[in-house]
Amino acid sequence: MRGILRVGSRKVWFYIVAAVVVGLVAGYVVLSEQDSPKFQSEKGILDLTQAQLSTNPQKLTGKWAFYWQELLSPEDMRVRSAREGNQDHWINIPRSWLGYPLEGQRLSGTGYATFGLVVHLSEQDRDEMLALRLPSIFNAYKLWVNGELLAEVGEVGQDKHSMTPQLETKLVYFQPESDTLELVMQVSNFQHHRGGITKNIELGGSDVLTTKTNLNLARDMFITASLLVIGLYNLLLFMLRRKDKAPLYFGLFTVLLGIRSLFNGELIFTQWLPHFPWELQFKIEYLILCLSGYIITMYFDCIFPNYVSRWFRLGARIVTGAFCILVVVTPAIIYTKFLLVIGVMVVLHMIYLMIGLVQAAVRRMEGALIFLLVSVVTLVTVVNDFLYFNGWSLVGNTSPLGLLIFTIAQLILLSSRSTRTASNEERITRELQYVNDKLIEMNMNLEQTVQERTQALSTVHDDLQISYDRLLHSEQGRKKLLAYITHDLRMPLSSMLGYVEAIQDRVKPERNEHYLKYIRENTIRINRMIEELSFLSHLETGQVSYRMEPIQIIPFLRDFFEQYELVVRDAGLDFILDIGDAEDQQFNLPIVEMDAKRVEQALFNLVSNAMKFTSRGGLLRIALAVDELNYAPHAVISIQDSGMGIPPEQLEQIFERNYRYDRPGMGIEGSGLGLAICREIVQAHGGMVRAESDGKMGATFYVTFPCTVIEGKG
Questions:
Q1: Rounded distance, CA 15 to CA 38, Å?
Q2: What SS3 class is residue 93?
Q3: Can you say whether residue 614 is alpha, beta or left, with left for phi > 0 and alpha for psi between -120 and 50 degrees?
């Protein structure tokens, strides 16, 4: 496995753990069976007098009489019992006689034996038609019920040459004439490493067991048909599109599983072809088992490239080839002994792939989680079957269902990949067609296209020229402003220098206090001018941050008015706030998204500007209105003064940073930056500011902000 499993996000790991848990739970559900049989035989006697077999079949589990290396008929057993008394050897059924301790030794898997069981029936079952459901028994047997030969599969013999192996499931019917059943079964095995009755024999009503058998047969046929159809479909897809090998390996894997399912469960294949060679049947089953791990590894490598290391792929190929050769060249008595080793090989393949799936899921590759989930289910069922065939589990033939679930999930994954590939091809085709149409259109209208491009270049050139002119104009304005500020700074600095020299030379010592007052006032003026210029530069370059919040504009204006009312009135002006009757009615209150401190600064600049140009005894009025602009409500704040007015031709210039309007005779000092600062702040709030004046008396400044209007309580 290349690389180290990298830790992903907690969310991805949660999905992986959830997939594993769900897979284990699903595997448990798949393997779930009824509880252990309620009735167990003891020393060859099974008491079913408390059971109703006609509706509730029972498994003939427990201790059966066991006669090793003897093929006894019912008559022989009766004679033996009359002459020698009770049998001393008992064996648990179902289980192989392989390893059974007898006279200080453990039996091998080959040999022959006779099994016996006496069943006591209830009164209601005595007159019912009963049936025995016989599984595949290794590897030939005869069955007598109450002395009547009811079933014979293969040919029982005392050595390999005198017996004929055969695997077949059977359902035999009989009607007991008494409340006692005597079952005698001869079993011989010289071809497989495990012999004996390894699966449950069921006794019950004929109707119930017939229905159960038919359902099992239908289930096996459904699983087999599904696997074969899915496999052949994917092989056909590969034949049509050989570039992608994922359908090839998946199709081979599914077809082989479908063929193997014919040899398990109800043994559909032997029911169709009862004379099919037993040895070839086992070789096919084991070869498919050996190849499945390697094929699924190659399929995984196609779905998630670069996750299977080269060394693992090479090792899997060598081990798989070795086991296939072993199965082909040796008889079943040899290669069946390696069933557990083959199972470990297949399980190791699956575990290795699941480690790769975890890695793929951590990297959030498409389909990895689903692949991991169904792999866990499949692993549980496969491991259970290996345990079952080695006599360590009571639940058998679960792998076909688990593999069907795995196959359906992979079919969905492959279909998703194919659909996505087809969609991409369609999209690329559409894009190529679109590009081709565009090229044809461009070729047909080349002259028009050239003209359009030329016109577009001309437009860009004009835009660049306009931008250049604006930049040049801005640079010129900055130079003028610098010259203007230099002039303003030179005068107070020269004056301050003269006052300082007068104090040093003691020209008029009695006026030193006045000189110091002039120096202080000029210093404050210069400091204010520098602060305003710095603040305006920050505004223009976007270096000022705003803390926007919804503010009710009426309370905001009232607070502003109360804060600066004494300042305005001390300047000898009448100060009025006009907000109409909106506040009293509490109806349709406007709310503005703004930075209250910045807006307060902008409004104060306008008020301060009005105070400069309005003589004592004049009027300064603040008003509020809500208007519809471009189908949206806007709050309009107006600041009106009764000052000297502004010439109409200068109304558009007063907000520029390099503009200053001084009417002769007024003697008003200022930096000319206050209105420019006001405009920058208002525009940052998505609003606008403008001025109106007739040039003779008074001016009105309008500040407009977008707002929302809410209904208050009347």
A1: 41
A2: strand
A3: beta
| Residue 464 phi, psi dihedral angles, 5° rounding | -65, -40
Residue pair 188/197 in contact (Cβ under 8 Å)? The answer is no
Query: Residue 547 pLDDT > 50, yes or no?
Result: yes
Report d(CA 62, CA 42) in Å as an integer: 6
How far is 141 from 153, CA to CA, in rounded Å? 6
φ and ψ at residue 347, rounded to 5 degrees: -65, -40
Give backbone dihedrals phi and psi of 231, rounded to 5 degrees, phi first: -65, -45
40 within 8 A of 62, measured Cβ to Cβ: yes
94: preceding bond cis by omega (within 30 degrees) = yes
180: nearest Cα among 206, 142, 147, 152: 147
Please tell me the distance from the alpha carbon of residue 418 to that of residue 5, in angstroms, as a whole number. Answer: 29
The C-alpha atoms of residue 336 and residue 390 are separated, in whole angstroms, by 10
The pairing of strands 45-48 and 111-121 is parallel
pLDDT for position 659: 65
What's CA 531's distance to the chain center, in Å?
57
Main-chain phi, psi angles of 656, to 5 degrees:
-85, 145
Which of left, alpha, beta for 265 (phi over 0: left; psi -120 to 50: alpha)? left
Judge whether 115 and 91 are in contact, CB under 8 Å.
Answer: yes
Residue 85 amino acid letter: G
In 3D, which of 659, 644, 653, 626 has the Cα closest to residue 693? 644
Cβ atoms of 279 and 332 closer than 8 Å: yes
Both tokens of 510, joined, read 């009695």
At 418-476, the pLDDT tens digits run 666 667 777 787 888 888 777 777 777 776 767 777 787 878 778 788 777 666 655 65
pLDDT in tens, 95-141: 889 889 988 889 998 999 999 999 999 888 887 899 999 988 888 99
Q: CB burial class (10 A; 0-12, 13-18, 19+) of residue 295?
A: buried
What pTM was computed for the model?
0.52
Q: How many CB atoms lie within 10 A of CB 76?
A: 14
| Gap between the Cα atoms of 100 and 68, Å rounded | 10
* CA–CA separation, 610 and 95 (whole Å): 110
Mean pLDDT along residues 623-644:
87
Number of H helices, E strands in the chain: 18, 21
Q: How far apart are CA 316 and CA 334, in angstroms?
A: 22
DSSP 8-class letter at 291: H
Cα dihedral 408, 414, 420, 423 sign: negative
pLDDT of 403:
64
Distance from C-alpha of 357 to C-alpha of 350, rounded to nearest angstrom: 10
Of residues 417 and 589, more confidence is placed in 589
